[in-house]
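tool=predict chain=A
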Amino acid sequence: MKWRLREGNGEAIYEIGVEDSGNLTGLSQWDMSASLQTLQRMAKKLGATTTILRERTLDNNRTVAEVLVRKIPDDQNNIEIRIAVLGNADAGKSTLLGVLTQGSLDNGQGRARLNMFRHLHEIQSGRTSSISHEILGFTSQGQPVHYNYSELITAEEICEASTKLITFIDLAGHKKYIRTTIQGLSGYSPHHAMLVISSTAGVTGMAQEHLAIAVALNVPFFIVVTKIDLTPPMNTLRSLKSFLEQVGSRRVPLVIETIDDVITAGTNQLTENVVPIFCISSVNGDGLELLLKFLHVLPPGISSKEKDRLEQELAEFQIDENFRAGNIGQVLGGLLTKGVISEGAKLQIGPMKDGSFRKVCVKSIHRNRVPCRVVRAGQSAAICLDTYIPNLRNGMVLVSNDLKVYGCLYFQATISVIYHATGIHQGFETTVHIGNIRQTAVIVGIFSSNCIHTNESASVLFKFKGHSEYLTVGQRLLFREETAKGIGEVTQVFPLNVNTY
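tool=predict ok
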């Protein structure tokens, strides 16, 4: 059990009464009761909790059961999962998140989404234009912990009361903000993506675009069809199924109708090509119970072994937001991709305009609006520095002092063109997304040919147009310009000749 919990990053599902071959043999009532007691005693020894997900009585009157065993890793307060929320504008993304995280249904006029918005123009237009974060917790027994859980509960108390914490990254759906959406998907490295589709509008071009980006970035996804109180979802489900079964994605749609479907979908989310589809209403609450149960059993996206490996590496923190808060000092928001950062750590920040890095010290750390002493690989956090750094921008990195780092203007990458109306030639300019970096780059050289067409691959040399960036070999790359789009991988970086100071 200890090994399985480590492998599952704090979660393991036990199937009792099932043979190794997968046959459902079942146990008698007495044997099942004894087996569950043994499992509970084993879990208790390790400081874990058990929850029966489902029980089924077979034709021979024997029973099979599926039990979730959960143990919070010793160095964490809870098991955390990041979910990016995608979908077309007006599909009901912010409303759905408002209902899930606030714990009260919408009134049909957009009341639930008001808590999601960050800017006045978003409240006035009802349209998300920025990236916002919201949290939803679950107790060990699967009860949701949201702002309606008890009177005047704070984000800090939600974190304390939860053994599992879902962080929703609410992304913009309008075509105008597509770069912000790609930035959120690429920079925040979500474990899963939730594609929200309106039953009234159906599968629009923007929803297909978002789905293509999730597939390109290799993010496991599930689909939520909203507004079923206004329009029955039959037509939308039909078009969704035919779209998912296309050659490009080769996914198997599974419409969730029972708790059994939920458990099957949750346990297979990372391994199979199954795409769970939920039909819900944020106004009358239809289907919400099944979606919450699914979020409760959803597996963490990274194995414990991989997490340990990342924590052993030197620290690298991607900066997605930076601001000054009163007299507190410089605050950086973002994701720690490698290593561990603690209070008082000596780091370096950059690259500056000339490609150099500046030495800084970490004054304090906050996670989910709660002060903490340490942030580990795979966790997002807000870090306060001891000094003010002028000319900071999103896309910079905060790295360990032991790393020899540099900025670069030129880099080489192997790219595959997903679509281009004619062909990509030397001099082609495009917005490049690499991790949290978003900048215009120009292709200054194409190796082995003069032009790349749709479905072709080639090694190319890029040059950033604005300023130098920090890149490492092996990073995934996504580019998009009007209808043209492609993916790739950084193969070589050409550093600027500067000294770190």
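The mean pLDDT is 85. The radius of gyration is 24 Å.
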